[in-house]
Amino acid sequence: MTDVLTVIGVGGMGEAIARRLGSGKTVLLADYNEATLASVTESLSAAGHHVESRSVDVAAAESVRGLAEYAASLGNVTQVAHTAGLSPAQAPAEAILAVDLLGTALVLQEFGEVVAPGGAGVVIASMAGHMVPPVAPEKEKALAHNPPGDLLQLDFISRITDANFSYPIAKQANHIRVRAASAHWGRRGARINSISPGIISTPMGQQQLASEVGDGMRAMIAMSATGRQGTPDDIASAAAFLLGPDASFITGTDVLVDGGVIAAVKAGNPD
Question: For the chain, which domains are there?
């Protein structure tokens, strides 16, 4: 039975992960944007990959469940990369919370039911989740363990109306949810981690740089140790490690791939 790499969200990072890891596997691509999905499917197929595709709405439980069941019907679901998300430059707070927070919880739940023993998953979070104070313990418990369908109704989540605040909160919730999901995935002999990219040169990243927060982002790049934007290939390299055998003792954690931005911010870099 063939191994299946499922990539949810096939923008810059998702496509890079599929290209890096897809050889010799069935690659299942899933996205809400059907034009993007068709384009990437055609490109990867032309490059020799065995590609299947399916439209998905990650904020809809039945859609995510259907995707997970379809992935399992194709073979052993050995690798899952969830990259789908919205940024404040793309959507209002309500949509960001639905896709980035609820959507991630649904993917973790449904793919935790079908991932193969020895398999692994990664969720693309964000360094933004490291830039807000930790939530109170009772709120963290709710974000970790409440059923996905209840998350958007949580008092402290439903009151968020600012897109620039909803995004880091959703990404911090991703870190929390991945930690909690590691036990569920572990019962199947599988691992799950998150990656927190910094400022990456993707269409989403370029939109953010062109927005009202662009100057602040450029300042963070300037103060970082690497002094550059990241590339989708930088994220694909980290995903390849976390999804591969060299990371067999790593689960339930977040890996910052941000060029040193958070380190500089927290250290109060005098330069």
Answer: 3-267 (3.40.50.720)
Report CA Rg, the chain: 17
Find out whether 100 and 148 touch, Cβ atoms under 8 Å. no
Structure tokens at 220: 């963070």
CA 71 to chain centre: 18
Integer Cα distance of 111 and 196 in angstroms: 20
Catalytic positions are: 167, 171
196 DSSP β-pair partners? 256
Mean pLDDT score across all residues of the chain: 94
pTM for the full predicted model: 0.94
Chain-centre distance for alpha carbon 191? 15
Q: Is the pLDDT of residue 222 over 90?
A: no
Answer for the pair 193, 250: CB distance below 8 angstroms, yes or no.
yes
With CA atoms as reference, report the closest residue to 85 among 14, 179, 191: 14
Burial (Cβ within 10 Å: 0-12, 13-18, ≥19) of residue 108: buried
Q: How many residues does the chain have?
A: 271
**pLDDT, position 17:** 98
DSSP track, 134-160: PPPHHHHHHHHHS-GGGGGGSHHHHT-
Residue 30's SS3 state is strand
**Which amino acid would we find at residue 11?**
G
The whole-number pLDDT of residue 211 equals 65
d(CA 271, CA 87): 29
Mean pLDDT of 7-14: 95
Helices and strands: H and E segment counts in the chain: 12, 7
Q: Is the pLDDT of residue 50 over 80?
A: yes
